[in-house]
Amino acid sequence: MAKSKFSLVGKITLSSIVIYCLALSALESLVVVYHHAFVVKFILTPQGKGISDSDLIYHGIFFLSLIYQVAFCVYSLITRNSIQLMALVVFNILSLAYAGVQIYQHIILEEEGTIGAEFKPDDKFKTPEDARDFFVKRMRPIEYIIASLVLTFSIYLSFLSYKLTKEFGWENYKTYTADLRVRKAYVSLTILQTLVKLDIFFLITYAIQLVPSKLIGYSRSIFETVLVFIIGFLLSSLAWYSVDKEMKYILLIVINLCCISLAYIVYRLIGINSPVPDDTIDPYQFTRRLLTFTLSVTFVLVCATIYYGIICFRNMTRGIYIYTVYGLPGSKNDNNISPDEIRKSKRASKKAELVRTSTAISLD
Predict the structure, then answer these.
(1) CA 88 vs CA 70, 133, 192, 209: distances in Å
(2) Largest interatomic CA distance in the chain
(3) 138 in Cβ contact with 58 (< 8 Å)
(4) 55 within 8 A of 105, measured Cβ to Cβ
(5) How far apart, in Å, do the first and last CA atoms of the chain sit?
(6) Which of 14-28, 129-143, 226-240, 340-354 has the lowest mean pLDDT?
């Protein structure tokens, strides 16, 4: 019988996060059902429909974040990546902030999204207040349970991540040698790899959030959404490839493009939070907080990506390559290259050079 690749703590972690995500999905699905049941009681104005659709999109983003967390966890366990496990904890804490924003958005829908809407009475609900009271009493406790679950699981996941970090530490030490420069370069590379994955998620969620702004009055939303998706996908693909294959010049291109993207993020943050004249429609009136939250997190992540990208580029120019010489995390290393051999030349060693050639990876 084949031995499992996951340790006992790893199995507990994976099982826990799967159960957690399934539980949150079930609770979130209930909120969506109540949300829809409440909205169909009204013939909404275009603005009210924009608010309702934005809420549904936020539910979709929440589901996407749960899938992302499971994939993140599986990859972290397979590659023995303790950095990504810690990032998973941070990601889960950010989900708590998102859950809080979602509660606020529902309050907006209930109080302002139905203003000017035509109510459709029936035998069960005679007035808009009857419908609002009925669904709020059912939705709000579930939303608070979701927020409490996220907070509790974040603490629990922190403990599991700490245990796994200690477990993976020795394995990574054996794989990436006792050479301090190599170990530091490995940490920088894994941090950069993790940041790229987080960048991808927040770029996607930002682009998705532009859709309801179009319904509320933002005329450039669709064009900008498509542009963000295309450019974000290309930039993320380049970043992923440059890190995974340790292609330093492609990484340099990514660093420069990330610097340009910071200007766009600042421009959008200013635009979203600028005062709107009283006689014009404010397209961000009901989406401003979550857009600002997403862009602010993305700004911090991109800044960190640039910083660690520069560190990794510097390491590569000094001939310190990690995955190319020692193999990817979690994979078996058969190169048997000693630290002394690696120090013999700036480009690692003749044997490492042969490994690069045989795997058809160009370091230049």
Answers:
(1) 9, 37, 14, 22
(2) 85
(3) no
(4) yes
(5) 44
(6) 340-354
Taking 3-state DSSP, the helix, strand and coil percentages for the chain, each rounded to the nearest 5, stand at 75, 0, 20
Q: Are 66 and 228 in contact (CB under 8 A)?
A: no
Contact between residue 96 and residue 150 where contact means Cβ atoms under 8 Å apart: yes
How far apart CA 110 and CA 38 sit, in angstroms, is 9
Token pair for 362: 């160009």
| Sequence-distant (≥ 6) Cβ neighbours of residue 188 within 8 angstroms | 308, 311, 312, 315
CB distance 282 to 217 below 8 Å: yes
Residue 3's CB: how many other CB atoms inside 10 A? 5
Q: Is 119 helix (H, G, I), strand (E, B) or coil?
A: strand
Which residue type sits at 182? V
- Paired tokens of 307: 């910083």
* Confidence check: pLDDT of 157 > 60: yes
What confidence tens digit (pLDDT) does each residue in 82-121 have?
888 888 888 888 888 777 877 777 777 777 777 777 888 8
DSSP, collapsed to helix, strand or coil, labels residue 309 as helix
Q: Can you tell me which residue has the tokens 């959404």?
A: 225
Q: Which two tokens stand for residue 18?
A: 């799967």
Q: Are 109 and 8 in contact (CB under 8 A)?
A: no
CA atoms within 13 A on the CB side of 273: 13
Neighbours of 137 (CB within 10 A): 10
In the chain, % of residues over pLDDT 70: 81
How is 259-270 classified by DSSP, letter by letter? HHHHHHHHHHHH
pTM of the shown model: 0.79
| DSSP codes, 196-254 | HHHHHHHHHHHHHHHHHHHHHT-TTHHHHHHHHHHHHHHHHHHHHHHHHTT-HHHHHHH
Angle at the Cα of 296 from the Cα atoms of 279 and 304, rounded to 5 degrees: 155
